[in-house]
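Bug report (template v2)

What were you trying to do?
Predict the complex of my protein with NAP.

What happened?
Run completed; filing so the output is reviewed.

Input:
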Amino acid sequence: MILILGGTAEARALAQRLDDAGRPVISSLAGRVARPRLPAGETRIGGFGGPDRLATWLRDHDIDAVVDATHPFAARISASAAVAAPAAGVPLMRLERPGWTAGPDDDWHRVPDLDAAAAAITRHGARRVFLTSGRQGLAAFAPLADPWFLIRCVDPPETDLPARHEVLLDRGPYTLDGERELLERHRIDLLVTKDSGGDHTAPKLDAARERGIPVVVVDRPPRPAVPTVPTVEEALAWLP
Ligand code: NAP
């Protein structure tokens, strides 16, 4: 039995490939999203209760291998898996899509975290900000009184928000035409994104480049030292 720690397109793709091949697979989701896209095979939903309980869960369910295919910004579950898998004697592989790289025509400003992203908005004197960093951590932007924010996330935010904003509930994949239209209609002059990587949410970067809009890119958090592959194909090759 393979456990996939999921919540990403790659995790769903891996579950599909294993299920298609008749391999037993169980995907784990955190339960953050109200109507998650369920992967093929079995699914379980909700936290494990920390690394010790995850280790017990791995033993109790006779898990043969764990693939941590969680989002690059989901640092706690990855840290938990890096402790629990060795404790339970189960091999662990990380499946992580590469981050995005700026091209010569991009105007990117990399920052270490969301607080630094909020400071960068003020530094740029931005008036109309497209905020795509997700629902969690929006409180970092709440003190910013002046700029207007277009906040795009999958489910309604539950934290304090900046005074002037509109929430756009949507989930990728997004198209270049759609992103162009959003930037134009809302007269966006700054884009804020996490360095999530992958194709599903990349068109906003292309649209920002076309319009010469600066992009504040939040760097990925530090990760535990776990063997890592960038593609579903390589994760499949590693599995027992
Ligand atoms: P996180 O900060 O690393 O996790 C917080 C806690 O939620 C973990 O300690 C764990 O609880 C539980 N958890 C997280 N992912 C889990 C999973 N796949 N299965 C079971 N429990 C999980 O994670 P997060 O940033 O809140 O992300 C939550 C989920 O959303 C992840 O599955 C991730 O792949 C997905 N996601 C995150 C982002 C993002 O920007 N952070 C974006 C897209 C998708 P216990 O300690 O109790 O086990």
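What did the reviewer find?
The domain at 108-218 is CATH 3.40.50.720 (Rossmann fold). The chain has two domains: 2-97+222-238, 108-218.
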